[in-house]
Amino acid sequence: MGFLNWMKKATKVIGKMAEEAAEEPLEEKSSAKCSQVPNPNHDPYLEKWNNRKPSRIINLEMPELTFQTRYDFSKVRGFDFGMENNRISIFIDGKNQKIAKEDILKLNAFLSQGYKKETDVPEFHIEADSIRFEPSERGGDDYTRLFMMPPTPTGKKPKYPLKMSFCLMSHDEQWKVSSGKGKEIFGHIYYLQDGNVGKAEVICWKHQGKKSSYFVFHIRRSSNELLLSKIEKHINCFSECTCT
Fold it and tell me: What is the DSSP string of 38-104?
């Protein structure tokens, strides 16, 4: 089954969560008509946005995988944002959470390496119990999830067929930290066709008002191991941004 056919067949709303959402008055109103954005210039993206269907959590009927992976996709949930041809995010449930945590926590070695080698890079660390696997609200993106990547424009298999976006804070927590002082970490892990991590990007913020800075750790696979290839430094980005 092709990727697009799989997305079309992923239409069965899951039981309890969907039923509870449908019972809420506000949810009923939003399902009648989604919010609209003025589009006088007929922008194609805004047209898709305005024509979107109500978002929903669905059971995914997965295609036959063309790549290797440690994740079990025999029974998974997904979030359908409602837009035409949108990329459905896959919830990480059950034993898959252990796999995700293992891969995310391995990134700590590179965060520590950056701190030890670069004098202007703060110390960052990912705590296992801070990894979020559920959104704070229906339709939110503040949780760790998987994405099946589409073929290349020429129809070839993607180099990284599976992507994980990880998140450690809810939107409310992120807002509180960014409005004051504190650290924030999120990022992405990309898996190769053989199931190994091929690359990762970790975005680390040190919030402190106008002196806030963020650092992007680029991790790449070389031969049989992952290496820290580069750290982007965005110092005092709310005053006079200096990027290296």
Answer: --TT--HHHHHHHTPPPPEEEEE-PPPPSS--SS--SSEEEEE--STTPPPEEE--THHHHHHHHHH
- Sequence-distant (6+) residues with CB within 8 A of 179 are 207
d(CA 161, CA 117): 32
Q: Which residues, 6+ apart, have CB-to-CB distance to 42 below 8 Å?
A: none
Rounded Cα distance, 52 and 58, in Å: 16
Query: Own/partner pairs for 14-18, CB < 8 Å, 24+ apart?
Result: 14/57, 14/58, 14/59, 14/77, 17/57, 18/56, 18/57
Residue 103 has phi, psi (to 5 degrees) of: -70, -35
Distances (CA, A) of 165 to 137, 147, 240: 17, 8, 29
SS3 state at 243? strand
| Residue pLDDT, tens place only, 147-180 | 999 999 999 999 999 999 999 999 999 999 999 8
Tens digits of residue pLDDT in 28-62: 333 446 777 888 888 887 787 677 777 788 888 88
Model pTM above 0.90:
no
What gap in Å lies between CA 190 and CA 175, rounded to an integer?
27
Element (H, E) at 27: helix 25-32
Token pair of 73 as six digits: 């996709």
d(CA 122, CA 134): 29
Q: How far apart, in whole angstroms, are the C-alpha atoms of residue 27 and residue 17?
A: 12
Domain positions in the chain: 3-243
φ, ψ for residue 163, nearest 5 deg: -125, 140
